[in-house]
Specification:
single chain, mainly beta, five-stranded mixed beta sheet, 3 helices, 13 strands, elongated
């Protein structure tokens, strides 16, 4: 998929106050639309120009055979289309319509999960491998919310914590899972407690920074002592590939 994840292959119905239109996003240069009823009823395949404006947000413009020109702001995060059309008689229309997807895109158009995985991995390795307290301001939101009951609230408290970490502390990242604005990372940390611990950290991302954190920790049990015969954490887990 090109043009920064434009949802090629998607079919959708957009309901405006005056009519409903069915769109087929054939490619990042071509689209078909059909208005079945009302004063604007017709169908046509048009050449489009697509400009990405942000994650799942696109400006799409075209000119129809009648001479009408249309610019849509298609917002797939919010399920909205803001349409601005100039008709052949000079009439100008501003409309907002809701999206109902009838066929999904050929590929996912949401780039947030991959970006958020990179953000979380950067944070965990910066703070708990390199013990770089300066990374807190760069990666964490000013209103950062902490749910670990043993760590004081806020970004300043996290900065102070990282500044005081011992040289013996070391974090190993593993599997990273992401959906929407949430990321979970599985890892192992040594030097945080008396024994190595396996931890799952869950983050909420807002405006490109880490805004909220939860975690669950458990003492690591050697394979030979585990009734399952399996390791709790495998250093061969591949981060960012999940």
């Amino acid at each position: 998929m090109s043009i920064d994840h434009f949802p090629t292959g998607m079919q959708l119905d957009v309901t405006f106050p005056l009519f409903q239109v069915s769109l087929t996003l054939i490619s990042d240069t071509q689209m078909r639309f059909e208005i079945k009823e009302g004063p604007f009823a017709h169908n046509e395949t048009v050449e489009i120009h697509v400009v990405p404006l942000g994650n799942s947000l696109f400006a799409v413009s075209w000119k129809e055979a009648s001479g009408a020109t249309v610019t849509n702001v298609q917002d797939y995060d919010r399920g909205l289309v803001h349409s601005h059309a100039t008709l052949p008689d000079g009439q100008f229309l501003r409309m907002a319509g809701t999206i109902a997807v009838t066929r999904p895109a050929d590929e996912s158009l949401d780039a947030r999960p991959q970006h958020n995985k990179v953000l979380v991995l950067d944070a965990m390795t910066s703070l708990f491998q390199r013990r770089d307290a300066s990374a807190v301001e760069r990666l964490y939101a000013p209103t950062y919310i902490q749910h670990n009951p043993g760590i004081p609230q806020g970004r300043d408290a996290l900065t102070a914590l990282v500044s005081g970490l011992p040289d013996t502390l070391y974090y190993e990242p593993g599997i990273v899972l992401a959906e929407g604005n949430f990321v979970a990372i599985h890892g192992r940390i040594r030097g945080w407690a008396e024994k190595p611990q396996v931890v799952i950290d869950l983050f909420r991302v807002e405006d490109g920074k880490l805004a909220e954190h939860w975690d669950v920790l458990q003492d690591d049990v050697p394979v030979e002592a585990a009734v399952t015969g399996l390791a709790m954490f495998d250093p061969e887990e591949v981060a960012l590939k999940s």
